[in-house]
């Protein structure tokens, strides 16, 4: 598989297959914060939110372990396709790095991700984020990342949906993948609230 390289930041492109454990930092409100840890238990990414007023936000900021803003995702309104843009850093006034949208406005369809810096670089997200079972494919239909329920290695028990695994193939940008997780969580929240 050809590696895609950095979309958000080179420092989060892993040379080996990498598994991040992602945990919702609040269990009270859908769409609240996240923390992502590497296999050694070190914090890699975090998203902070502060209670029910932040749930209606159309903008989320992904930070690294020391709190540096590395990616901002913002919902485009109005949009029938649930369109979201991703921007480097905290500012959203410059050109976005990528765009995410539903492939269809009917039902729970797959998502299409278009990367602007490289015309033709596109990804497809299939599966159910609500069930924590999603696969991210590149344009050649090769798996580049997966979201799965986390299984406790010692007891072999599937953990709750508030803890899941984000698996990254070599060469795929982890910050970009985590940005997609934020967007999928917001879209899932919107779907949940409308049903």
UniProtKB/TrEMBL annotation:
SUPFAM superfamilies: Tubby C-terminal domain-like
Top-level taxon in the UniProt lineage: Eukaryota
Signal peptide: none
Similarity section: Belongs to the LOR family.
Name the record gives this protein: Protein LURP-one-related 5-like
């Amino acid at each position: 598989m050809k590696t895609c390289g950095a979309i958000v930041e080179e420092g989060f492109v892993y040379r080996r297959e990498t598994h991040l454990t992602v945990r919702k930092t609040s269990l009270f409100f859908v769409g609240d914060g996240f923390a992502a840890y590497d296999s050694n238990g070190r914090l890699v990414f975090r998203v902070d939110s502060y209670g029910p007023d932040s749930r209606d936000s159309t903008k989320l900021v992904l930070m690294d372990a020391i709190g540096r803003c590395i990616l901002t995702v913002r919902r485009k309104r109005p949009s029938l396709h649930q369109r979201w843009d991703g921007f480097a850093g905290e500012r959203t006034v410059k050109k976005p790095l990528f765009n995410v949208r539903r492939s269809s406005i009917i039902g729970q369809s797959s998502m299409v991700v278009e990367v602007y810096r490289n015309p033709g670089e596109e990804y497809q997200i299939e599966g159910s984020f609500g069930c924590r079972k999603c696969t991210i494919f590149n344009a050649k239909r090769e798996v580049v990342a997966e979201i799965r329920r986390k299984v406790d290695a010692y007891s072999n028990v599937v953990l709750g949906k508030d803890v899941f695994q984000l698996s990254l193939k070599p060469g795929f940008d982890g910050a970009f993948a985590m940005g997609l997780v934020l967007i999928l969580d917001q879209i899932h929240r919107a779907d949940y609230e409308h049903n």
